[in-house]
Amino acid sequence: xxxxxxxxxxxxxxxxxxxxxxxxxxxxxxxxxxxxxxxxxxxxxxxxxxxxxxxxxxxxxxxxxxxxxxxxxxxxxxxxxxxxxxxxxxxxxxxxxxxxxxxxxxxxxxxxxxxxxxxxxxxxxxxxxxxxxxxxxxxxxxxxxxxxxxxxxxxxxxxxxxxxxxxxxxxxxxxxxxxxxxxxxxxxxxxxxxxxxxxxxxxxxxxxxxxxxxxxxxxxxxxxxxxxxxxxxxxxxxxxxxxxxxxxxxxxxxxxxxxxxxxxxxxxxxxxxxxxxxxxxxxxxxxxxxxxxxxxxxxxxxxxxxxxxxxxxxxxxxxxxxxxxxxxx
Length: 329
What we know:
45% of the residues lie in helices and 19% in strands. By secondary structure, the protein is an alpha/beta fold. It has two domains: 39-131 and 255-323, D-Maltodextrin-Binding Protein, domain 2; 132-247, Periplasmic binding protein-like II (D-Maltodextrin-Binding Protein, domain 2), CATH 3.40.190. Strands 1, 2, 3, 4, 5, 6, 7, 8, 9 and 10 form a ten-stranded mixed beta sheet that branches. α2 (50-66) links the parallel β1 and β2 (70-74). It is globular.
């Protein structure tokens, strides 16, 4: 073989090897074969609460669309930080999602230090929906309405207790805002999720709870709980004859929400596929039927919608937490 021919062969082999070396990277970044294995959806609460219920309903519908099972895994504790930190530090390949709630927007202001640094550790997938919290007491409670609650809270400062799924959650801050705006004193009792909190409410260990609609709806339906008010500015069609707390406590508004995140650095094509699947699942008849009684308004828009919404929530609650010197414990 001549020297010139050898040079041609060597150059051809070099180009072939170089292009082969780039193929795995291109495939990994394109997400063209995504998903090809089960996807984990982390719920940063104990089983039985609103986020857990919504995740399981959503997971079934997304699994059908994606052709891979969505495995829901509960990682409760530390005001959602254990579960969210797990996902923030997971491989950014689309196979680890977290369902975020109100706590995601308030933790930067409420926590002295976040284990994952900041919310920039996540990339948004979709704002699933928003809805009211519901102020509930057990069915046999002597507190019959908002007027009775306010009178009791003011006559016995600090004696009434309210449960929450953890520090920094919407039920926690719902209670804090209620106490501040009504000029009353109630005592917060945090749990590791809505399930344990509701169990103690039913057992009489705590007096009330500003529960998410998704968590409270089944027990309101079977008569184990009684609703006193909703936390949105206007009454919710899902809770007939239940007044807005704002009718007795002017300026009171708290909104619960659910959003999906993946670790920052996840390929845009993978996020787009997850967004498309989650949007389809959230708008499916099966999902809509399951959440119809929970007052959830479906958003299911592009990832940027979640980013914009949470930025506004962070701003609003940061001011409230700072102005009222609210701590995470």
